[in-house]
Amino acid sequence: MQNLPVRTIPGLSFICCMCEHMGEATYKGYDDCGHDECGGPWRGLAFPEYQGPLKSNLELYCFRCGRDGDLIIEVSDAVSDARLGFCKLCQEELPDRPIELGGDGDKHA
Fold first, then answer.
1. What ranges do the domains of the chain cover?
2. What is the structure's pLDDT at 108?
3. Mean pLDDT, to the nearest integer, of 2-16?
């Protein structure tokens, strides 16, 4: 995994924590970024408003926790298509929140 400066915010996904919008909102003292049309796979979205260092590498890291992405989730929303990483540990921790995995599950395909 590439060393990235990571800020964590309880209750937010790794992708949100690494987004410039969330960084700016946190700096201003807000609890969320205000981009209501953004979000991840559980909202049927592919982080369409994301701006930050992961922009072209979303599949390399688990979108939830930031660990290496063991699996690939292919998500399409009205704005974008994305390949998001998801680690096996998060998949095991969240059996009641299944995500349909796309692709062949190989991040190097």
1. 14-93
2. 32
3. 69
